[in-house]
Write a structure and sequence with these properties.
Shape: globular
Strand content: 5-15%
Helix content: 40-55%
Distance between the termini: 64 Å
Largest sheet: 5 strands, parallel
Low-confidence stretches: none
Number of strands: 7
Order of helices and strands: HHEHEHEHEEHEEHHHHH
Number of helices: 11
Mean pLDDT: 92
C-alpha cells in the first residue's frame, strides 16, 4: 500500500522529543501555519462547492456532512453551527459520522473501515437526488466516507470531496474536489494537526459563503441568526441598529414585533407596515435583505 503525503515524515521531526519545550512548540506552530497556507490554492474549488450547497438548500434539499475520526469532527463542527449562525433549519442538515454518537466518546478507528455501516447510515438518512453531500477524509481513502460518496452519486446527489492527498480515491467522480495539500505532519500521521487545521479553515470559508449565497449575510452581519440566548439577542439588537440606524431600544422593540427576525426588524425600521408584509418582501427578494431594501426604494 502506498502511503500518501499525510503519512509522510516531516523534515523537522527528527530529534523533536529531545528539544526544549518552546522549540517543540515553535516547530508545531510553524507546521500549523504552513498547513493553513495551502487553503489559498483551493479557493476556487471551495467557491464552487459553496454554490452547489447553496443551490441544494434553495431547492429545498439538504446538506449531508460525512466523515470519520478527526476529519469527521471538523465536518460535524461546521454542520452544527449552520442553524444558529445562518438560521438554516436543522432538518436540512444531516451529519454522518462513522460510529455516530459512540465516536463522540471514543474515536475508535474500526468504524471508518465499515462499508456496511456506511451503507446503512446513508440509507437511513435517505440521501437522494438534489442533496449535496460534503465528504471529508484526510487520506482521501477512508472506506466509510468512500462508500457514502458512492451511494450518494448512485442516488443522484451531488458530491463535494475534501481531502489532503492529491489523487485521492475520494475525488473520483466528485462534482467538486477540494485538495488541501498539507505538508507531512510533525507527528507523522496525526492528521488532527495540520490536515485538520486546513480542513477547519476550508469548512469555515465554505459555510460562510453558503450563508452569503442564501442572503443571510449583510455587510458582515449574520442577519438570519437564531437569537436563542442573552448574548445573541443582544447581538441581534446591535445588528438591527447598525443596519437601520435606529437606537438599541427601538431595535429591541422592532425585534419583538418581528418575533426575533433581524431581517424583518430591519424592514420594519425602513418603513414596512408590519411583519407579514416584510415577510412577503423578503420572499420576493429570495430572502436577501439587500435586495429587499433596494426594492423598497
Amino acid at each position: 500500500m502506498t502511503a500518501g503525503r499525510t503519512e509522510g515524515r516531516h523534515d523537522q521531526a527528527s530529534g523533536l522529543d529531545e528539544r526544549q519545550p518552546v522549540d517543540v512548540l515553535k516547530v508545531l506552530a510553524d507546521a500549523q501555519k504552513a498547513a493553513a497556507a495551502v487553503v489559498d490554492a483551493a479557493l476556487a474549488d471551495i467557491a464552487a462547492a459553496a454554490r452547489l450547497a447553496a443551490d441544494a438548500i434553495l431547492a429545498g434539499r439538504r446538506l449531508v456532512y460525512v466523515g470519520a475520526g478527526s476529519s469527521g469532527l471538523m465536518a460535524m463542527a461546521d454542520a452544527l453551527e449552520l442553524p444558529g449562525t445562518y438560521g438554516i433549519a436543522r432538518d436540512r442538515i444531516v451529519i454522518l459520522l462513522a460510529g455516530g454518537a459512540a465516536s463522540l466518546e471514543d474515536l475508535a478507528g474500526g468504524y471508518e473501515d465499515d462499508r456496511d455501516l456506511a451503507f446503512n447510515d446513508a440509507s437511513a438518512a435517505s440521501i437522494g437526488a438534489g442533496d449535496c453531500v460534503i465528504a471529508v477524509s484526510a487520506s482521501g481513502s477512508t472506506p466509510y466516507v468512500l462508500a457514502i460518496a458512492d451511494y450518494a452519486r448512485e442516488k443522484g446527489a451531488s458530491v463535494v470531496a475534501l481531502a489532503n492527498n492529491s489523487g485521492a480515491a475520494l475525488f473520483d467522480g466528485a462534482d467538486v474536489s477540494i485538495l488541501l495539500q498539507t505538508p507531512p505532519e510533525v507527528i507523522s500521521g496525526s492528521t488532527r494537526m495540520g490536515a485538520g487545521t486546513a480542513q477547519k479553515i476550508a469548512f469555515n470559508l465554505f459555510s460562510t459563503l453558503v450563508g452569503v449565497h442564501l442572503g443571510h449575510v449583510h455587510d458582515g452581519h449574520m442577519v438570519n441568526l437564531k437569537a436563542d440566548n442573552i448574548k445573541l439577542k443582544g447581538r441581534a439588537c446591535r445588528i438591527v441598529s447598525d443596519i437601520s440606524g435606529v437606537g438599541l431600544d427601538e431595535a429591541e422593540r422592532l425585534l419583538a414585533r418581528s418575533e426575533g427576525s433581524v431581517k424583518t426588524a430591519v424592514l420594519l425600521a425602513a418603513g414596512v407596515e408590519d411583519a407579514s408584509v416584510a415577510a412577503a418582501v423578503l420572499e420576493r427578494s429570495g430572502q436577501s435583505l439587500r435586495r429587499a431594501l433596494k426594492a423598497l426604494g
